[in-house]
Amino acid sequence: MTSVLHRAGRLLFAAAAALALLAGPGAVAAQAANPYERGPAPTLSALQASRGPYAVSQTSVSRLAVTGFGGGEIYYPTTTADGTFGAIAVSPGFTAYWSSISWLGPRLASHGFVVIGIETNTTADQPGSRGDQLLAALDYLTQRSSVRSRVDSSRLAVGGHSMGGGGSLEAASDRPSLQAALPLAPWNTDKSWSELRVPTLIVGGESDAVAPVASHSIPFYTSIPASAEKAYLELNNASHFFPQTVNTETAVQAVSWLKRFVDDDTRYDQFICPGPSGLAISDYRSTCPIG
Predict the structure, then answer these.
(1) Quick one: 156 and 246 in the same domain?
(2) How many domains is the chain partitioned into structurally?
(3) Could you list the residue range(s) of the whole structural domain that residue 99 is in?
(4) Boundaries of each PET hydrolase/cutinase-like domain copy (predicted)?
(5) Is 255 in the same domain as 150?
(6) Is 38 a member of any domain?
(7) Same structural domain for residues 82 and 200?
(8) Which of 75, 105, 106, 141 has its CA 20 to 30 A from that of 246?
(9) pLDDT tens, residue by residue, 5-63
(10) What residues contact 273, with CB distance under 8 A and at least 6 apart?
């Protein structure tokens, strides 16, 4: 229901903009603005930088203080001047801890998102369990966390690496009101996601021997209906472990995807369609959302 209302809200804002055009130029600025837009107009160089425009603070979450997941770290924009922000919960992979992909926390938060990087209940948890834990982390973030007043609970996303990426698909399947999913080198025994309705960006590594793209990322992408909005980025010669070090191509597309679908910010369409190219990219596919 939240997703339906959120999308209906977009139509209302478009209608308001049309009415403002009839009322005159002074009304356009007041009525046509996207209320979820955060930060300056994007440039490729700004997205490629190690940090975005927002200063970031961090707070730890003890596993003893939560239920349904194993605690973790929260990263959030320090400013209170811009109102609330969209949020994303991110899971590490099989046998791994949040520290293995923790660069994503401040990177995403510095572009105007609240990020909770989770520890799983056990490092052997499978994708289905990791999906449940991502949703439990979002519920904690929006309802009980010390930063809950900074989060817009109607604009939430999930992501993860390996089994965490497979878990983000599970979470998106279970909670279609989510606004975006970011599976990175995802692994899952379930290859068909035809029920998915959440805009999903999958990033795979061309040389991944743990979750080969031919039997994981590509079938996942192909099975998601185009109506959900989807993109597939494949990194040239990248292994399964590319998310465990800073990866600029992943960061650029992840931020752009979250901005476009969590913040409804069409300024980022330019980075999604036609999408990235160059020596670092071996494949890119997208349903190309515009406007």
Answers:
(1) yes
(2) 2
(3) 44-286
(4) 31-289
(5) yes
(6) no
(7) yes
(8) 141
(9) 444 445 444 444 443 434 444 433 333 489 999 999 999 999 999 999 999 999 999 99
(10) 286, 288, 289, 290
Per annotation, catalytic residue among 100, 102, 162, 256: 162
Q: Residue 1: is its pLDDT beyond 50?
A: no
Task: Look up 162 and say whether it is catalytic.
Answer: yes
Give the pair of three-digit tokens for residue 131. Answer: 């999906």
Q: Are residues 278 and 212 part of one domain?
A: yes
Per-residue pLDDT of 131-145, as tens digits, reads: 999 999 999 999 999
Residues 67 and 185 in one domain: yes
Q: Are residues 108 and 24 in the same domain?
A: no
Report the C-alpha gap between 71 and 59 in whole angstroms: 11
Catalytic residue among 111, 161, 216, 240: 240
Task: Give the predicted TM-score (pTM) of the model.
Answer: 0.89
111 assigned to active site: no
Contacts 24+ apart (CB under 8 A), 215-221: 215/191, 216/185, 216/186, 216/187, 216/188, 216/191, 217/183, 217/185, 217/186, 219/191, 219/192, 220/169, 220/183, 220/186, 220/188, 220/191, 220/193, 221/285
Question: Is-catalytic flag, 161?
Answer: no
More confident residue, 147 or 24: 147
